[in-house]
């Protein structure tokens, strides 16, 4: 009898590819967070420097490291208070205990506002993407389109940033690259009209998802906020309950400025989730902790590079592990 070698099924092959992609992303995330990690490692080393046992006052050495990593003063104080309480109870005695409890606290903060719901239950699922120019908003839309197309979903784009001709062009390039339709008008057109057409097209063509881009001038521009509110209202009139998600794209390299940006957008637009881009090479990776704690908003996706698979769903435990892995 001829022996036939074992061959993987299609589902096993798919699972293996997904696992390899996750492993590769974690490795790149770890590399990207090196500057933030170095700052935190220095603070941890100072906690027990020359000490046989950790005392509450020794944890003050961590304060500067957390603030330098852009964790923010309020969030840093909350973390230190919790750690000092554990020290007083005798649960923290050495550097390893400090690290274990610090990781746990960080994962808890980042997990606090995450929802276990099926966000794609509506069809078409309308996603409105907002953020200032330069945050990586349009590129994020392209990457999400690629991700969902790869998952077998039908996706339609709406080039709603009509104030920048380059943004419309960028959306058309992504649409052609991924192989999806893009609803657009000429530069200077009414953004609400584009959003209207995009949602109508998504309904008519029975698409799974419609991703709608928006203008991104400075967040202090009141007219921009009013324009975004109008776009959201128009979408809701075409399809009651839509947009089903409003995602804010933020640039990690601007650190605490992203917190004030997010507050302004959230007040105007009631954001559902955050996308943090440009985490590769920044020393400000700790800002995710502050922004989720301050605004009570979940981080949905993080980006660490230019390639399509450099944007992935955010996993709090993986992120914290990457912050401390050598």
Brief overview:
Keywords: Cell membrane, Cytoplasm, GTP-binding, Hydrolase, Membrane, Nucleotide-binding, Receptor. This protein is α/β, with parallel strands linked by helices and 326 residues long.
Unreliable runs: none
Strand content: 5-15%
CA-based shape: elongated
Total of domains: 2
CATH architecture classification name of the largest domain? 3-Layer(aba) Sandwich
Secondary-structure content class: alpha/beta
User: Mean pLDDT, rounded to whole units?
Assistant: 88
Main sheet, how many strands, which sense, barrel? Answer: 8 strands, mixed
> What is the radius of gyration computed over CA atoms, rounded to a whole number of angstroms?
22 Å
- What is the straight-line distance between the termini? 51 Å
Helix and strand sequence: HHHHHEHEHEHEHEHEHEEH
**CATH domain class name of the largest domain:** Alpha Beta
Structure description:
This protein folds into 2 domains: 78 residues, SRP54, nucleotide-binding domain (Four Helix Bundle (Hemerythrin (Met), subunit A), Up-down Bundle); 200 residues, Rossmann fold. The protein is of the alpha/beta class and 326 residues long. The protein has an 8-stranded mixed beta sheet with strand order 3-2-4-1-5-6-7-8, sandwiched between helices. Helix content is 52%, strand content 11%. The termini are far apart. The chain has 12 helices and 8 strands. The protein is elongated. The mean pLDDT is 88.
